[in-house]
Amino acid sequence: MLVQFINLPLIPSLSKEGKENKIFHLFFVPLSKGDHRGSTMKIACDFHWEMGHRLPEHAGGCKNVHGHSYNMRVEIDGEVQRNGMVMDFFDIKKIVQPLVEKLDHSFLCSETDMLMKNFLAKAKMKCVLVPFQTTAENIARYFLDAIRPRLKKVKHLRRISVRVAETESSFAEAAEEIGEWRNLKI
Ligand SMILES: [Zn+2]
What we know:
Number of strands: 10
Number of domains: 1
CATH superfamily: 6-pyruvoyl tetrahydropterin synthase/QueD
Mean pLDDT: 85
Structural class: alpha+beta
Bound molecules: zinc ion
CATH topology: Tetrahydropterin Synthase, Chain A
Distance between the termini: 30 Å
CATH class: Alpha Beta
Radius of gyration: 25 Å
Strand content: 35-45%
Largest sheet: 6 strands, mixed
Shape: elongated
CATH architecture: 2-Layer Sandwich
Number of helices: 4
Order of helices and strands: EEEEEEHEHEHEEH
Helix content: 25-40%
Strand order of the largest sheet: 8-7-5-6-9-10
């Protein structure tokens, strides 16, 4: 049975001599059904941004300059803590939102795409250069690699996954195990 300690304040009582005794009360109380401390749960935050890109090596339409309304879901698996949370949603957003803002209304450009790289530099337009082809798969991995180091030291977390959707019907997902859980499994 799951129990928790209730550490009540010291309760004064009077002895026969009239002196005040301090009595320490320790109770074993069953955890309520709503207390999921220690259980593994998944939490998630969604993010959204607009961005231009192209895939120069694509045989079809993706080689042309175009854009998407990207949706991204960052999921984190971990153990519920004493405060009832795996992690504060605010803290996830604090890590991820600046990364999203860096890309929002930019053109994500492969460093090897000299045509676009030179054009955007000359036009002084917002451009983010990356060392990969700007597919949904690589963007998911880009975010995972940026977020993971910030969570590495949070011992009760187990897994992070990043799902990037270019359209309503297609997405790519990158995932990795993190924290002490990963070490235990090795
Ligand atoms: Zn595209």
